[in-house]
Amino acid sequence: MDLTLILAGIIVFGVGAYVILDGFDLGVGILFPLIPDDAMRDTAINSIAPVWDGNETWLILGGAVLFAAFPVVYAVALSAFYIPIMLLLFALIFRGVAFEFRFKATRSKNWWSRAFTGGSTLAAFAQGLLLGGILEGVTTGPGPQGSGIALEFAGASFDWLTPFSVITGLGVVGGYALLGATWLNMKTEDGLRDWSRAAARKALYVSLLALAVVSLYTPLKFDYIAERWFADMHWLSLSPVPLATAVVAFSLYRELKAGSHYPPFFYAIALFLFGYLGIGISLWPHILPPALTVHNAAAPEQSQVFVLVALSITLPMVLIYTVYAYWVFRGKVEAGAGYTH
């Protein structure tokens, strides 16, 4: 049994869960100032109130497992992406504070609404910067002699900031707006649902444009991605991924146009998952290209066993309370239903 692959799979699952679950509530924050009136904004924020903080558990889980199971990747990534990671964390903190204060504020309610939007948008954009930086690769070099450090970051502080990473940042903002709009379409009624359905169509166009740019640019820019997709007729065996993505995108557009309540949200999730799969195919077996792969960056076997024992306890608990929370708060959110703490 390859423990390294199991732990890598858990990280992939955790990051995917975070992107989907926190993605839609960040999307609600991104769309927040565009919602027509304050009553609708209250309903929108009430739709994510029971679950938004629990969604961020998956980010903590993914980071903790990365630190324990792939410490070299953790160390190099933190050095290479220190600024966007700090932007992400401060944005999430600021957003959380704004979320809570907005419910208590009277005169400053509009200010906290803008802060909620700013924190949500910056968090999404920072995640896109990280994605672009990872795809472009990280410069590494041997650690100091006698230090026991095999590899360390050897690039510059702003290597991650490129036109490509800005495009991926904007793409993630648009994608999260799509998730948020389809969530509101599923969870609300009347005027807000009609508005969110129209917003979802616009966000879908932005998301598909960003997805097309990234899909076309990456094989032209990066030889290792071009080889993965096109060498030795790989494109033939991998073609179901882009074809399925196109089918899902068309189905999402059709369901939005038909005024469906529930299918658009799940089609939006599927669109993200196919994009996530495409990134995985492009990167594998690298975690942090070009030097760090799943196996050469893994912790010793004893550490992996320890992490798996801990995860055998914590991961089922996180899954159970996540499923339970969404089950308890299933159904539509009524206008005027308040957040009480």
Automatic annotation (TrEMBL):
<feature type="transmembrane region" description="Helical">
    <location>
        <begin position="204"/>
        <end position="222"/>
    </location>
</feature>
<dbReference type="GO" id="GO:0070069">
    <property type="term" value="C:cytochrome complex"/>
</dbReference>
<dbReference type="GO" id="GO:0005886">
    <property type="term" value="C:plasma membrane"/>
</dbReference>
<feature type="transmembrane region" description="Helical">
    <location>
        <begin position="160"/>
        <end position="184"/>
    </location>
</feature>
<dbReference type="GO" id="GO:0009055">
    <property type="term" value="F:electron transfer activity"/>
</dbReference>
<keyword id="KW-1133">Transmembrane helix</keyword>
<feature type="transmembrane region" description="Helical">
    <location>
        <begin position="81"/>
        <end position="103"/>
    </location>
</feature>
<feature type="transmembrane region" description="Helical">
    <location>
        <begin position="265"/>
        <end position="285"/>
    </location>
</feature>
<dbReference type="GO" id="GO:0016682">
    <property type="term" value="F:oxidoreductase activity, acting on diphenols and related substances as donors, oxygen as acceptor"/>
</dbReference>
<feature type="transmembrane region" description="Helical">
    <location>
        <begin position="115"/>
        <end position="135"/>
    </location>
</feature>
<dbReference type="Pfam" id="PF02322">
    <property type="entry name" value="Cyt_bd_oxida_II"/>
</dbReference>
<feature type="transmembrane region" description="Helical">
    <location>
        <begin position="6"/>
        <end position="35"/>
    </location>
</feature>
<feature type="transmembrane region" description="Helical">
    <location>
        <begin position="234"/>
        <end position="253"/>
    </location>
</feature>
<feature type="transmembrane region" description="Helical">
    <location>
        <begin position="305"/>
        <end position="329"/>
    </location>
</feature>
<keyword id="KW-1003">Cell membrane</keyword>
<dbReference type="GO" id="GO:0019646">
    <property type="term" value="P:aerobic electron transport chain"/>
</dbReference>
<comment type="similarity">
    <text>Belongs to the cytochrome ubiquinol oxidase subunit 2 family.</text>
</comment>
<protein>
    <submittedName>
        <fullName>Cytochrome bd-I ubiquinol oxidase subunit 2 apoprotein</fullName>
    </submittedName>
</protein>
<keyword id="KW-0812">Transmembrane</keyword>
<keyword id="KW-0472">Membrane</keyword>
<dbReference type="InterPro" id="IPR003317">
    <property type="entry name" value="Cyt-d_oxidase_su2"/>
</dbReference>
